[in-house]
Amino acid sequence: MGGDAHLSAMATAALPAAAAPAAVPRLAPRPLIDRFGRRIDYLRISVTDRCDFRCTYCMPEAMTFLPRSEVLSLEEIDWLASAFVARGTRKLRLTGGEPLVRRGVIDLVRSLSRHLRSGDLDELTMTTNGSQLARFANDLADAGMRRINVSLDTLDAAKFARITRWGRLPQVLDGIAAAAAAGLHVKINMVALKGVNDDEIDAMLRWTGAHGHDLVLIETMPLGVVDDDRADRYLPLARVRRDLAARWTLVDLHDTTGGPARYVRIAETGQRLGFITPLTHNFCDSCNRVRLTATGRLYLCLGQDDAVDFRDPLRAGIDATGLDALIDRALLKKPRGHDFVIDRARPAPAVARHMSLTGG
Ligand code: SAM
Ligand code: SF4
């Protein structure tokens, strides 16, 4: 299907399970290298900013979501993702908001998995709160997903309800069990929150170790206004790591995935433990990713406002030359790094948008 015919079809059609892969204009097979020499081969896509939870560190309870008319169709997401795959993206992560509350997202996963089969993509994955996983884990595995990140900040049901406001722990634990049963490798994301779950890190290590899941600890980041004061909750992971080293044997791992997490192996359990420390130690020098919002804006850095709109050019029928040039121009905007700081003297978040918009 040619570009124009394809775009007009996309405007009306939903993405049926057996939809023909969207045709993307033939792009220059030029890898994406930014001004600082970093190779960008990882695209995170927020497929919706909506969510069935309201985690206190992520969004206010009375969160305002994007009007649906602003949001890309699944076909448009597929098209843009495929354009990035054509330009050398090797890894796609669907996130949000909660990706599994977007209707039809499994069809999107099935459709994108053609890039795994063709060998153009190494990995198609997802970050989810797990609430819908019991329903969808098999579909995700059948569609070619091999790994999944599930957010779980506590194993205490009452605390879980307090942190997520609307979430229920048993539902998420069932989801994680379903994912493991479906053969998905599960990595647990735990945002470390002072005075909330800092007393549970050992318990979480034991639980994830016993279930064969990896664990990643994340520092709370100053993204978007929330009801809490982040300064009250900010827990520097450098300190957590020092404390853990007194009780566990942490063996440094030198992974080369270009991600922000630094990993150790816990000798006692064999599992991997990651630390995402944008505040105490930032790893922007090895950043390999960009992020697409549900409205088609490409953010070049989670912690900065530089962004380029792809939705309007896509809807206007951009051709291969224009799309190549737009991707190249976007990359030029990628900054060296973020300027995150959590400080009582500076109560405003570093960036106004919430993590759910750009995708965590
Ligand atoms: N809803 C899905 C989930 O919770 O896994 C995917 C989107 S969520 C925004 C992605 C990840 O970002 C989650 O692990 C969440 O805990 C984390 N997150 C959200 N807001 C954050 C913040 N302000 N600082 C650090 N991590 C945050
Ligand atoms: Fe929803 Fe994920 Fe944000 Fe929690 S962290 S409110 S589950 S988007």
State the separation between the terminal residues, measured CA to CA: 33 Å
Provide mean pLDDT, rounded.
88
Radius of gyration: 20 Å
Strand order of the largest sheet: 7-8-9-6-5-4-3-2-1-10-11-12
Explain what this protein looks like in three dimensions.
This protein has a domain at 32-187 and 286-358: TIM Barrel (Alpha-Beta Barrel), CATH 3.20.20.70. The protein is 32% helix and 17% strand. It has 13 helices and twelve strands. A twelve-stranded mixed β-sheet has the order 7-8-9-6-5-4-3-2-1-10-11-12. β8 and β9 (272-276) form a beta hairpin. α2 (74-86) packs parallel to α3 (105-112) and α5 runs parallel beside α7 (169-181). It is globular. 45% of the residues are buried. The site of S-adenosylmethionine (SAM) has 19 residues, from β2, β3, β5 and α13.
Question: What would the keywords be for this entry?
Answer:
360 residues, alpha/beta, TIM Barrel, binds iron/sulfur cluster
Q: What is the fold's blueprint, element by element?
A:
Blueprint: H1 3-12, E1 42-48, H2 74-86, E2 91-96, H3 105-112, H4 114-118, E3 123-128, H5 133-142, E4 147-151, H6 157-164, H7 169-181, E5 185-192, H8 201-211, E6 214-219, H9 230-233, H10 237-247, E7 250-252, E8 261-266, E9 272-276, E10 289-292, E11 297-299, E12 307-309, H11 311-315, H12 320-332, H13 355-358
Parallel strand pairs: 1-2, 1-10, 2-3, 3-4, 4-5, 5-6, 6-9
Antiparallel strand pairs: 7-8, 8-9, 10-11, 11-12
